[in-house]
Design a protein that fits this description.
The complex is a heterodimer of chains A (443) and B (333).
Chain A (H helix, E strand, L loop, with lengths): L1 H20 L11 H15 L3 H12 L9 H17 L11 E8 L13 H19 L4 E8 L2 E9 L2 H7 L14 H11 L8 E8 L10 H10 L2 E7 L5 H10 L3 E3 L3 H9 L8 H10 L7 H4 L4 E5 L2 E3 L6 E2 L6 E2 L2 E3 L6 E2 L4 E2 L6 E2 L2 H6 L1 H4 L6 E2 L31 E3 L6 E3 H11 L8
Parallel strand pairs in A: 1-2, 1-4, 4-5, 5-6, 7-14
Antiparallel strand pairs in A: 2-3, 8-11, 9-10, 11-12, 13-14, 15-16, 16-17
Chain B lengths: L4 E8 L2 H8 L9 H18 L4 E8 L2 E7 H5 L15 H21 L10 H16 L8 H5 L3 E8 L8 H13 L3 E6 L6 H10 L3 E3 L6 H9 L3 H4 L14 E2 L6 E2 L1 E5 L5 E2 L15 H18 L15 H12 L1
Parallel strand pairs in B: 1-2, 1-4, 4-5, 5-6
Antiparallel strand pairs in B: 2-3, 7-8, 9-10
Helix pairs in contact in B: 2-4, 2-9, 5-7, 7-8, 11-12
Protein name (chain B): Transcription factor Tfb4
Protein name (chain A): TFIIH basal transcription factor complex subunit SSL1
């Protein structure tokens, strides 16, 4: 059926543009969203009678072309918006949790087969979870992720806690093993996640991320008791809901210091997930303790989970070394890393040694986290021509000529407050998002 | 496979190191003039290799870094250096050679003879090279068309280093390495003079490039052409010498000892070779309980192995340390 096939292709196209351009909608969190969601559904029902037509309509609803018919302004606005968010963020170094432990709870109930997100909520959330895991490990090299599924009223361990991205991805790679069925149970899944993390030391964070598509939960006991015990164990719960806001989800997040959001569409779903990637500031516990013991001696910064950890720096065996068995997979390999304490051979780092339990890292892993601790100061947009009188005509970093106006600076120039060099729009974004090092200050 | 490639060369122009390198007392003296003539032949062969190949040359001078030459600048008549046409040479070779030599001598003239020499701005040059490549890889949206993305160049950076590591540049260099990894830039390092650079070894290893320490420095051109001219895609087929000895053990912040097992502050990730009550970097106080526990295990491990310092050379396989450590494991859990 040729016409049908054409439809499918169109469908995919419009979905993609949808996902990338929906940033344009005002970002709202939590409560503001639920009514909006309902509105959209209602309008969908009234305007478009068939589900397969629904996906076309939205893509050109949300993006406004400018008078010349290009989408450039929408894209510019997107970049400028991101920049504005960063300018308002505090630029001073704040204490962040570097060693993170996260359990992702995936909803595998019937409601995940809903097609309001393309292709289905289930497929989309699997795809985004994969991207999330990759990006998460990139930014939190010392963290570990475990995966729990909610299916048929029970919590189901899908992937063990692991610091190795391929292991985590393998756990969610086989779609047929995760086929959604039955009702979800928040309590069972949270209890399971909690018990997985119960042995962790105090300096590491314990976090739960729930991707929740259902509007019900069937729990064997009182979920508020589970919530209480999570607060006691300092577990931070964040929920990304795909349907609508539920009181219990909101409460789980608010009381444990997590984030709650209802995804309005595919792009917003991804935004909500990816907001959880940067390491959280460690203020929640310290603020609480300092508030409680305001008269006590100034031990608040030290007591906020600072601790000394024992870590091993392994010896790397070169590719040319004689093959030997590894302790993690029991396979003959020549390359690998030797645990400095027990000389066991492991395939990948960072990990906890399978024999002696020592945390094995290499110095680049530690270095990868440094940029969270020493961020680059935000650049100041240059607003008038006078300011550029005695500065070089090109970008200090990439030697590009003036790029012209963008959303914020009329000259497209951004000046570092420390070294007073000017940078172009592109380099400003690149330096702050990727490079984390100012080319002028060399710090 | 047959994509054009972009090469950014970073020249370490530290005058003192070049003076030392040219001393006739060295086993293989290499003066800056010889170096430059070898380099120009290499740069010309890169341009000759494929017509679309592009080139950018950055210099790291004391306290300052700058762009000496770039292909796009040379293509733009308003900014290009004025080059006398010479009927006996290929115009592009001539442009590169003349503008590079002219600008280097101009910079050295500006430099004069200062009393104290600032360390070379290698980080500045490296970050600029990465920003430049970032711009090449992400051309402005208005200009890009679908077929453009297919013939974006294959980027790499070649660092010709002579000065030793500066310890305060560790974090920025590591950040640059990680961004290079993200942009899939290969970083090659040719250590022309001076002691091995641990930072640059890591840069080459983590980005899949090669680190080569010149032993016979008069054969610089041979090294450059044989190992640094092939593009990364071709290197999969031909075997290029690589370094396989990269050391990833960390040095502690307190005594700069290289440690096998270190004590790490959970807040700022500072590494110490012995348990300390207060972190020297971020002033975090560590709980007494942890200190006691760590001190206890450390004491028992020291008496057990008879080693004087945990930072001393690592025990090789099969030493008594092995049994002691596995016994310790139970205590530590």
């Amino acid at each position: 059926m040729p016409p049908r096939r054409q439809d499918d292709i169109m469908d995919v196209d419009s979905d993609e543009s949808d996902a990338s351009l929906d940033y344009d909608e005002p970002r709202r969190k939590g409560k503001g969203k639920a009514p909006k969601k309902k509105d959209k559904r209602k309008s969908k029902v009234t305007e478009v009678p068939y589900a397969w037509e629904a996906s076309y309509v939205r893509s050109w609803d949300t993006v406004q072309e400018d008078e010349s018919g290009s989408l450039q302004t929408a894209v510019d606005d997107l970049i400028a918006r991101g920049r504005r968010k960063r300018l308002f963020a505090p630029s001073k170094a704040i204490r962040r949790t570097i060693i993170r432990h996260l359990i992702i709870i995936l909803d595998l109930s019937n409601s995940m087969m809903d097609r309001d997100m393309r292709p289905t909520r289930f497929d989309l959330s699997l795809e985004y979870t994969r991207e999330f895991v990759n990006e998460w490990f990139d930014q939190n090299p010392l963290g570990q992720i475990g995966i729990v599924g909610m299916r048929a009223g029970v919590g189901e361990r899908v992937g063990e806690m692991s610091g190795n991205p391929p292991d985590v991805l393998r756990a969610i790679s086989e779609r047929h093993k995760l086929e959604p069925t039955g009702d979800p149970s928040l309590q069972n899944a949270i209890e399971m996640a909690k018990s997985t993390m119960s042995h962790l030391p105090t300096h590491s964070s314990r976090e739960i991320l729930i991707i929740f598509g259902s509007l019900t939960t069937c729990d064997p006991g009182n979920i508020h008791e589970t919530l209480e015990s999570c607060i006691r164990d300092k577990i931070r719960i964040s929920v990304v809901a795909l349907a609508a806001e539920m009181k219990i989800c909101r409460e789980l997040c608010d009381k444990t210091g997590g984030q709650f959001g209802v995804a309005m569409n595919e792009g917003h779903f991804k935004d909500l997930l990816f907001e959880l990637i940067p390491p959280p500031a460690q203020h929640s516990t310290s603020a609480l303790t300092s508030r409680l013991a305001s008269g006590a001696p100034a031990n608040a910064p030290g007591s906020a989970g600072g601790d000394l950890m024992l870590m091993g720096f392994p010896t790397r065996l070169p590719d040319t070394s004689p093959p030997s068995l590894c302790v993690c997979h029991s396979e003959m390999r020549s390359q690998g890393f030797l645990c400095p304490r027990c000389s066991a051979k492991v395939c990948d780092i960072p990990t906890d040694c399978d024999v002696c339990g020592l945390m094995i890292v290499s110095s680049p892993h530690l270095a990868r986290s440094y940029h969270h601790l020493f961020p680059v100061k935000a650049y100041r947009p240059v607003m008038t021509m006078e300011e550029t009188a005695n500065s070089s005509p090109t970008c200090h970093a990439c030697a590009a000529m003036d790029t012209g106006a963008d959303g914020i600076s009329p000259l497209g120039r951004y000046r570092c407050t420390d070294c007073s060099n000017d940078f172009c729009t592109e380099c400003d974004v690149f330096v702050h998002d990727v490079l984390h090092c100012c080319p002028g200050c060399e710090r | 496979m047959d994509r054009s490639s972009h090469l950014s060369v970073i020249l370490d122009l530290c005058p003192t190191q070049w003076l030392l390198s040219a001393q006739p007392s060295n086993p293989h003296p290499l003066s800056f003039d010889t170096f430059l003539s070898h380099l120009l032949v290499f740069l010309n062969s890169h341009i000759a290799y494929k017509h679309e190949n592009s080139l950018a040359i950055f210099g790291a001078l004391p306290g300052k870094s700058l762009l000496f030459y770039s292909s796009e600048e040379a293509g733009d008549p308003s900014t290009a250096e004025v080059v006398q046409p010479d009927p006996n040479s290929y115009r592009f070779f001539k442009t590169v050679d003349q503008s590079l030599v002219r600008r280097i001598s101009r910079e050295f003239d500006i430099l004069g003879q200062p009393d104290t020499e600032e360390p070379c701005a290698l980080v500045g040059a490296l970050t600029k090279a990465i920003c430049y490549i970032n711009r090449l890889l992400h051309p402005a949206q208005s200009l890009s068309s679908p077929e453009d993305s297919a013939n974006l160049p294959d980027p790499r950076i070649l660092i010709l280093s002579v000065s030793p590591d500066a310890s305060n540049s560790y974090i920025p260099i590591m950040n640059s390495i990680f961004s290079a990894q993200k942009l899939k830039i290969t970083i090659d390092v040719c250590k022309t003079f001076g002691p091995d650079s641990v930072f640059l070894q890591q840069a080459a290893y983590l980005t899949g490039g090669s680190y080569i320490y010149l032993e016979h420095r008069e054969a610089l051109l041979q090294y450059l052409v044989m190992s640094f001219l092939p593009t990364p895609s071709i290197r999969k087929i031909i075997t290029v010498p690589t370094e396989d000895k990269t050391d990833f053990r960390a040095a502690c912040f307190c005594h700069k000892h290289v440690v096998d097992v270190g004590y790490v502050c959970s807040v700022c990730l500072s590494i110490f070779c012995q348990p300390v009550p207060v972190c020297s970097t971020c002033r975090t106080k560590f709980p007494m309980k942890t200190l006691q526990r760590l001190n206890m295990t450390r004491a028992s491990s020291l008496t057990g192995t008879g080693a004087s310092q945990p930072s001393a050379s690592r025990p090789t396989n099969g030493t008594p340390a092995k049994q002691v450590y596995t016994g310790l494991a139970a205590n530590l859990r």
